[in-house]
Write a structure and sequence with these properties.
571 residues, alpha/beta, Amidase signature (AS) enzymes, 17 helices, 11 strands, catalytic activity, Amidase domain-containing protein, Amidase, Amidase_dom, AS_sf
Length: 571
Amino acid sequence: MSVAFLADKTQSDISIKDLHNAAAKLGLEIPDGPDAEDYLHLLQSVEAVMKQIRCSEDYIHPSLSPVETVALRTYWEPRAEDNSLNAWRHRCELVAASPTSTALRGKSIAIKDNICIGGLPTTVGTFTELLCPDGHLRVSPIDATVVSRVLAAGATLKGSANCENYCASPLSYSAATGPVHNAWKKGYTSGGSSSGSATLVATSMIQLRDGTSSEEAVDIAIGGDQAGSVRIPASYSGIYGLKPTYGLVPYTGAVPLAPMLDHLGPLAGNLEDVALLLQVMAGYDGIDPRMTPESPLRYQVPEYAQILSDFRTCQRDGRENLGSGLTIGLLTESFDVPGVSDEVRDTVLRSANDFFAAAGAKVVDISIPMHRDGSLIWTAATRLSMSEWVCQGKTSGFLSFLPPHLDARWPPDQRMYELLTATNPAIVNVMLSGPFLQEHFGPGIEAKAHRKAFELRAAYDKAFAKVDILVTPCAPTVAMPHPKMQADTEEPSSVMEKLSVAVGVTTNTAPFNVTGHPALNVPCGFGRALNQPEVKLPIGMQLIGRRWEDATLLKAAAVFEEGRTLASCGW
C-alpha cells in the first residue's frame, strides 16, 4: 500500500488523542514518541485526502443519466383514494422521448422504491430523516440501468412502488408509510420486500378478471430479491415473480442489501410478460461488479419472449406433449421444512404431480439433504456485514456505483432505534448482529459460510444432473393478517410478535440467492385465509433451474400451464 502524500501538519485538527482513540478501538496501545508522531502524521494525511474528495464535484456515469422523456420529470404523492392498499410511494408518468424499441410499448410499469428513478426520491421504504440529514428527500440524479432499459423499450413508468423498511422483511407491514395490503384481501400481507410491486400487478390481474380499472394497478413491475423478496410477494399475491440467475440482470442504481445476494427481477400476471421484461432488463452494463464473465453482453441476451412463444406454438419434432423429455424433481426436504402448512404442501404436491404429468413431463422425488441448511448458510454468509451495506451505505470493496443522493444516518441514535423498533425490528437485529458477531466470531465465520455456499451450489448442481427443474413450495402459507403496528389504537405488537410471523417464510427461497440459481414463483392454487375460511388466498409453487438456464425455467412454467389446461379439460 502506498501513501498518496504527506499533509501539512499545521492544517489538521487531528491530535494525538484522536490517534489513541483510534488505536483503542482496535485494542492497541501506541506509546507517545516518534512512532506515535509518525502514525499521527499518516492519519492527518489520509484526513486531507478524504476532505478533498468530499469537497469535489460528484460524477454521474453517462450511461446512468436520466433518459430524456416526453414531458419534464415530475412526481407527486398519490392521493389516498388512489392508494387504498398503500402500494404506491411516489407517482409519475414517464415515457421516453426517443425509445429504441417497442418491446414494452403499451405496458405500464412500477419500480420498487429501492431502485433509482431520475427526478424521483428513493426512500428504501424507510423514514426521510434516516436518509437525509436535513429532513428533505433528495431526488435521484440517475436512472438505474433497468429503469433506462424499460423506458428505452417504450414502457410507461407510473411511479415507485412501496417496499419494506430498508427492504428487510418478507412480509408487508414495515414500510414507513404503513402496511402494504394484499390485493386479494385488505389487512393481509402482500409479502415483502417488493410488496407494492406485487400488489399493483395483482390488482391489475384482478381488475382484468372483473372488468374494472383504477390507479392502483400496473401491467408489470420490477422488484428486488435478496432472500425471496420477488418470489414471496408473488406467491402471496397470485402472480409470477422471477429471481433471475445471479449476474444476469444488472443491479446498478439499486440500494444493496448484500452484494452476494442482490437480484432484480420481473413481476407480472402472465408468463409472457415475465419473459419480455427479463429480456429487456438483462445483459452486462459495464458497471455492476455482481456481473461475471458468464453474464451475456446486451446483444447476446436470449430472446426469452420469442423462445417462450416458439416453445408454446411451434412443431416439436414429433414429440407427443409439450413436456416430453422434461424431468421435474420434487425436492423432498422442501416439503417438510418447519412452517409449511399442510394446505400449501398438499396443493403444491398435487398440482405439480398432476399438471406436469398431464403435459407429458416426468415427475420424480429427489432428495438434497443440504437444502435444510440453506437458510442458515444465507444468514451466516451476510449477517456480519449486512448493516454496512443496507444501513451505512458502504461499498462492497469492488468498484461500484451507489445511489449518490442518499446519505444514510450512521451511527444510529435512540431516535433511529425507536423508529425501527416500532416498524421493522429486523433492521435493529441486523445492526446489533454486526458488532456482536465481529467480537465473538470474527470475519472468518463469514468467509467459511461463503465456502459453504459453494458447497450448497454443488449439491443443487448434482441434482440437476438428474432433473431439469426442482419444485418446492414458495411461501410456506397463504397470506396472513398484518401484526398490530404503532399507529393502531390497540396496543401494538411486541418485537417478537412482529418478527415471529416472518420466521421461516424464506426457508425455501433464500438458499437460491446464495447459490445464484434462477427461481420462479408460479401460481398453483388457493387456500383458506386465517380465521376467515370463506376467503380464498393464493398459493405459490417455486420452480428452480440450472444457472444461466432461465429460458428452461420459463418453458417449465409453460408446461405446467399446459398441464393445468389439459387437466381442466378432462385429459
